[in-house]
# Entry
Amino acid sequence: MTLFLLSAGLTIIFGLMKIVNLAHGSLYMIGAYIGLSIWTISTSFWLALILAPLFTALIGYLLYQVLFRHIQIADPMRQVLLTFGLIYIGLDSVRLFWGTMSHSISAPNILSNSIIVLGESYPSYRLFVIFIGILIAALLYIFLEKTKIGAKVRASVDDPEMAKLLRIDTDKILIYMFALGCGLAGLAGITVAPILGVEPGMDMEVLVLTLIVVVVGGPGSLKGALIGSLLIGFVDSYGKVYIPEIAQIIIYAVMAVTLLLKPNGLYGR
Amino acid sequence: MILELKKLSKSFGSIKVLKNINLKIDNNECVGIIGPNGAGKSTLFNVIAGHLKHDIGDVIYKNININNKSNEQRARFGIVQSFQKNSMFPEMTVLESIMLAISHRLNITFQLFTNLNSNIRILNEAFEIIKNIGLDKYSNSRSDALSYGLQRQLEIGIAIACSPTLLLLDEPTAGMSPLETKNIIRLIKNLSKNYTIVIVEHDMEVIYNLAHRIYVLDRGKIIFNGESEEIKNSKLVQDKYLGIENV
Amino acid sequence: MDYMEDKMKAVNYNPRLRLHLFIVLVVSALISIFFGGYFTRFFIAEIAILSIFAMSLDFLAARGGLVSLGHAMFLGIGAYSTTIFILNLGISPFIATILSLLIGCFIGLLISYFIVVLNGIFFIMVTLALGEMFHAWVFTSELLGGSDGISGIIRPDISFMGIDMNDPFIFAIYSLLWMSLIYFILSRITDSPLGRNLDALRQNHMRLSAIGGYAKVYKIIAFTISSGVASIAGSLYVQLNGFISPELTHWTVSGEGLIMIIVGGIGSISGAILGASVVYILQHELSNFISWWMLIVGLLFILVVLFMQDGLWGLIEKLRLRLLKGKNKI
Amino acid sequence: MISFLFRYFKLLITLPFLFCVANANDKNIIKIGTLLPYSGVYTVLGEEITNAMKLAFEEQEDIFDKKIEVIRGDTEVKPNIALQKARKLISSDKVDILVGPVSSSVALAIRDVVVQTKTPLIIPNAGANVLTREKCSKFITRISFSNHQINAPMGTWMANQGIKTAFLLAPDYAAGKEMMSAFRDNFEAGGGSILGEEYTPFRKTKDFGPYLARIKNSGAEALYVFYAGGEAINFIKQAHSFGLGDIMKITGAGWTTSPLFLPAQKDAALGFIGSLNYVPSIDSVENNNFKKAYIDKYDRVPSEFAVQGYDTGKVIIEAVKSLSGDISNKEKLASAINNISVTGPRGPLTIDKKSNNVIQNIYIFEVVSGDNIPELKILDTIQAVKDPGSGCNL
# Structure
């Protein structure tokens, strides 16, 4: 589900702005660290859960204003490299601000027990994460498909030039959607922090996986991100356990097969 | 006969763009295709050049059925088109673009270790062509630095550098000033001595000036075909097309 | 969504400047080799080898318009196959380099046959995934030494000619020779009809097919050549360092290679050498002084991407034009 | 051509002379080069080792009027970078002793250059068995541990405790596999049997859920596990939230609950039984002094990595002392290092002549609750453990 939160953010940025954002993982890491700081200061997980994504979105907003605005029309290579530079910066700034130790956030008390699901005990925090994932998916769906702003967004995705003619302020929409995408990365970071901890290097670990999900699902498609993250997440976790011989390769194989069959991803336009 | 289309149809989804087209082009002829916007002229061009695959019918070139030949293969047979929108190699100079095109005709594109730039034979030939299309002053300018009209000239230059047997020109004078248009007409007139040319054009002056024969296309159908004089006098065409255009 | 329109920008095609820059770089390297110490010689050899890798990426990116984030895979293929040839089969290292070149080309050919149809971002992603796949496989493969890699690889033994390859001076020269050879081959290919066609392919592939160019075939050839060159780099790298570890095949290595060529100026071949030198020296020097060098390097990358579209090559070209102008005035 | 060269004059002169900086060689300075990660994911280990080693040097002001200078070389945990830094330290900085590295792949990468240039190398962490077996050298001394050394005693100990069945879990890379096989050999020799094993993709596994389910169903009495860093934290927390500790004993290589990770693992780590070459709760004069000094200076409980760094410093000082400060002959220096025996925070240390690997005590501990952060309580001490490597009489 974390994968979904991440991929949803990335797919929005990817599909909407055609920006290849390799720094998405860094935003995820920064979101987790900001959450860590808020949690340490206020000792309230809920506050961290709300504020961390907002701060990450703010960072995304600033990044867009300062950097991405200029490379939106550049070729993909430049985008890749610019965001590659951002990975470096993200890694080192986290190290300078928060040090190199691994940290961890405790889940709030209500969610720290296990619940019996289908005869197996299952940590309730995990259920909470799944719940958040579903909630965000539903909210995004409603936002993009049912509201007026959503319609404008979709118009900007499908045909930017047409959208401009219709007097949709595509620039503004792009900024906010970029910030939203980054905010989702931050949300993912703080949501998984109680399970996976907060440490330098967590950015790289999710980056490739997220990119694969987006490509498999089809850039710009929310549905693709959802299905893709479920598929990849499932294949990744269970593939490792049941066919360990090819565990390392299996998700890439899934991606390769998908792209050979559908070169634009499952739900790509 | 160089090209023949037999009962050709093409549709995009549920929209039929070309319906049952029959068309013949003889050697060394200059044929014009006219028709209102959306009549299917560009689609017809793309089908002939092989960019698009038609659904039904046959394309016969020099008595060979080329239905299944790809765009590249058709180009190598000598069916070369110039595009409606300028689409050259923006970062190459005029000379480089022409030399590149010549390299295709000579079939040396798979040579790895010969220097294209210093091949005297190709160089001379390229200068010849550049002179023909009237770009001799610009041979070392980058394509994207040329004015629109000159770019159209280069566009034709690239096409003839492939020494086509059938040259497809898609609106060669679109968006040009009257002076530039005159230049192009002169250029094509010169070319039509040596090549078989098919022109799609909006500007009736240009067509009357150049084409020996004219096909009129309307909503994917050929509604008329004949000498240019006949077209001028045809009531049907006047109503359908020229009437509106010349208001 | 149409990614077809994403066109790579490359620097101006200018064979003269390319040769001049190359000569300057080689002369600088030679001076460093002659006057530098043990470490400098190794360093130059390393830069020369990285330059080969950068040139292979440069060739692919500028000529075919293909950006590969998985090219470190070929570095790894070259490196591991050389290792196996030398250690397990006892083949002389020089021949092993040639063989690894062939293997690299062959695998490049196989892979490219499937992936060159993809465009822009999908191509980047698929190469990234393939590279990671290879990395993951190497990382766990017992045969290839797993995460610890393999050490104890020897250099070409040509002592019968009175030359000791283990002398860093000799090996630096040997690497430079390889680099020059590859530079000349790639320049030659760039100037050839095929090279010009590849350039045209990047600029406008529709138009190229309209004049009879086999876009897909050209791309496959470009990818194959490029992967072969990368394999040579990998093979030499193993001989230089005497060991191989999976880190060499990580995708960030490809990323750094791309940064090198963007710093040097994409599409200029000798710019790739310049970029490799500058980036590598910068990283090395910075990491000696400050532990947060990554921050600075990252910032520099961003500045280059934003403000120096043609990289250092563009800078040199501007400088040259200004100098030429000054001359004409006098 | 000449005018063209002149145009690039600047470029020409800057490039070569960047490296030609000569280093003055001061005879009164002992130069220690570190090859440790100061950037990247293992930075914390590099810092612990360097900090503690400096602490050892500070305690000993100067030896025979010589000052000790530490030159840092950042390996970035990349073997190729490390090799390049090793060459720089050896040839440009002319260091007398190299200290490093943290990871085994880096150690193997720099091994040849160290041996060729005859520079004594003291390994303060990397555990690959081969370093003091097939690839051993008189110039390479390991003051930390071999993967076998830590895990093998645990196999015997657990078998002696009457545990019959175990399940193995470790990351899928060389060290993980070495540790598991060391444990397995001794555990099976003691009469135990392994019911199953899993190797998780190294540094790519964040969710242990599926593995935990499988381990639960295996019916083994104990789980033997090794993880480090973020994976260790995640594993311990996830195993706790899945209630694995209620079903079987969770045991493993001691790094899994290193003092570095305990602040993040908190109570989830309680009950874990592990083996390690150092635990902070060792009650000896050396350890108490060291702990106090370290906490005063760096404000955290020293980890085994810090101790390894500290002992490295001690060994260097003793070696220099034994040569009366004359370290110009590197072979003598190397053999002096190999002849040292000191008593450090973790107990008495001597170097095994057969492998140049340290002989040390291994502590079996259990994680128990402490004031704020859990503590490691020593259950058993196994004296003077050797690595079985032999035949290094070079």
In short: The CA atoms of residues 50 and 72 of chain B lie 8 Å apart. Residues 86-163 of chain B form one domain. Residues 243-247 of chain B have pLDDT under 50 and may be disordered.
